[in-house]
Amino acid sequence: MALPGPVEPGELLAVLVKEEANIAAAVEALEVEEGEQQKRAAAANADKEDAAGVTGDGEGSSGGAAAAGGGGGDGGGEGNGNAAGDSAEGEAKAREGGEVGEWLKGLDVDLSAYEAALAEDGFDCMVSVMTLNEDDLDSLGVKKGHRRVLLAAIAHRKEEEE
After folding, report:
1. For 128, what's the count of Cα atoms within 13 Å in the CB-facing half-sphere?
2. 8 A C-beta contact, residue 117 and residue 101
3. Of 6, 42, 138, 140, which has fewest CB within 10 angstroms of its CB?
């Protein structure tokens, strides 16, 4: 910021206040853009997972799902799809606007944009959501301010349940 020449102290304060307002507006615009990018990325990830789930079911990935699911028992086909089925079920719950989605929408700030990311990572019911911590939310790409809102809401709900 270049000043036009000698400036009186009162004028300097006015110039600084104006610059501070410009900076605050620029930061807010960047935060909005970052939020939009995260929403687009979450939507793209959900689309990729939907496509992978449709393609994977018919392309022999059920054997991998059986191995991942642990199979157990007689070793028959009953282990098929445990891991993939659980994931698809969680994603379906998220799309249906389940308990987690309703809770996210009901917070002071509508955080339902994170519902798919939570479901993708297995946080598709309130029991699992209540175990979330700062590191979990950070690894899911939740913004710092939204992490604080979520953690406060979780703490509040835990207090209500006691």
Report:
1. 14
2. no
3. 6
Q: What is the pTM of this model?
A: 0.43
C-alpha–C-alpha distance, residues 39 and 37, integer Å: 5
Q: How many helices (H) and strands (E) does the chain have?
A: 8, 0
With b meaning 16 or more CB within 10 Å and e meaning fewer, what string describes 81-113? Answer: bbbbeebbebbebbeeebebbebbeeeeeebbb
CA distance 25 to 5: 26
pLDDT digits (tens, 9 = 90+) for 77-134: 434 444 444 445 544 544 455 899 999 999 988 999 999 999 999 999 999 999 999 9
Q: Strand, helix or coil at 114?
A: helix
Q: Who contacts 94 (Cβ-Cβ below 8 Å, separation ≥6)?
A: 100, 101, 115, 116, 118, 119, 124
Distances (CA, A) of 132 to 95, 124, 142, 150: 20, 12, 12, 9
CB atoms within 10 A of CB 53: 15
